[in-house]
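Lesson 9: reading folded outputs for more than one chain in a single document. The general rule is that every protein is listed as its sequence immediately followed by its structure tokens, and records are never interleaved. Here is the first one.
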Amino acid sequence: MKKTSSFNKLIVCGSGKTDMELINKSDLSICIKDAPDYIKEMVDVIVSSPDEVLKIYERIYHSRNKDKKIRKYKQKNRKE
């Protein structure tokens, strides 16, 4: 029997026009510093490498209070 999961937060990492709709709908949006400027202006967090994106995902996933952790990332200054 296949287990289904119930997700209530959308965390997106995007870098192009096809990602714009998801970035707008996300609870937290991330891009890498090499993304186009119009994407950088849209996202909550800009990181230097894909490894940093994975670290953010892991920290939120393992957090007891995911809402609080997401708010913390949104409030931090963007990384460049």
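And here is the second record, again sequence then tokens.
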Amino acid sequence: MASLTPKIARFLLIAAAVVCAIGMIGPFKGIERNLISVDKAAHFVAFYGLTLLTIAAFPKRRSFDLACLVLMFGVAIEVAQMLSGRGAQLGDILADVAGVVGVLA
């Protein structure tokens, strides 16, 4: 049964990453405010959850390495936003970092 847990975490990680990417890059600017009223808090919560799922999905990997991958995803999202005309914000990346560090702490 324990071997099933990483498989479930991987499925949830893929689903969460797709939802985050669509929500942050797609034409849904501000949709996160329906759940969390502050954009930076939404970034914190999203990347806290993505980091938890990533660590659960790959339990034999170093947490720090996985956290770096999650942060690269966050930076990639901001670059994609910039290229799509939505605009990138350093504050969003800092909120992503805070979410990731919150898991590692």
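What the second record shows: Helices lie at 4-25, 39-57, 63-83, 90-104.
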